[in-house]
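Board notes (copied after class):
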Amino acid sequence: MNVQAYGHLAPLRIGLAGLGSIGQNHLRLLAQRDDAVLASIADPVAKTLRVAAAQTGARPFSDALAMLDEAELDAVVIATPTTAHATMALAAISRGIPVLVEKPLAATVDDGLRILSSARRRGVPVQVGHVERFNPAVLELDRRLRQGWLSSIYSISSRRAGPFPARIRDVGVTVDLATHDVDILSWVTRERPVRVYAETARRIHAEHEDLLFGLLHFSSGTTGFVDVNWLTPTKRRQLNVVGEEGMFDLDYLTQRLTFTRHTDTTNPTLIKGYAPTFAGDVHEVEVDSVEPLAAELDAFMAVARGGVAPMVGAEDGLWAVAIADALLASAATHAPVALDGFAARLMAA
């Protein structure tokens, strides 16, 4: 890595593979950075590639693997379709190039294990783009939990719903969206689920499920629930954590976080004179709003420069894929699925 003008280090030369929806956001943010140069971009769609190259001055490639071979890169962001993640990540790792791979890490557990094994063997850092980990409301929730606002967590549930995105064809809603939520549930509780159960449905997607209801059981006794679909006409991104002292409610989109303390249930308020309710003592938690993807890229730049471990590493990303895979297996068999088998595979990897 060259040492010169930017502080004591030259800007990192970044390659971007994939110019779809999330790739366009990476393109926008990378082009604005002072500590990085968007050196090359790759996408098979000629018009998209041509427009992005004209906007940024990045060297265009129609083949992402050719970009890794021919461009001199300090790091690469992989925002290709999920089924191409493994090929691209393994190719970058083999060349010693630090990787930020968009979530999910891979389309299958086997591919994820290959990425993790290769990264460990070669000592190449891999960060997985679980962007909700960088949402300031999530970070503030985690800080409050570590401070002991809830001495125990009884339940944690999430809802991630919205209209069907025509861009998603290669995987269903479980791999594409629920991987966000199972990662957040695991991170907030600081444990992995030991057993899952799920029901899925396919209503409008041509090949894959577009609705998932999933239950996660943690060894501490915490129960997790994920409600994910591509059928809801308005976008919803919500998290609820209930514990001994009260309840946190979080909205990922507005970055709003509240804490409601338990209230006196002996004196309910009546709605319209007949429906009893309990309002609770609601506290608005202050959150400094930032764009989560920009914070994710900040973290990746530190990883790519060396000496900093990824906040969301390949093992975290692999667990998310494994939990999603177990949820799909449960839905297919109509039975709970234990995760001890995957934990054993991971130990042996």
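Comment from the instructor: Residues 1-6 have pLDDT under 50 and may be disordered. The chain has ten helices and 17 strands.
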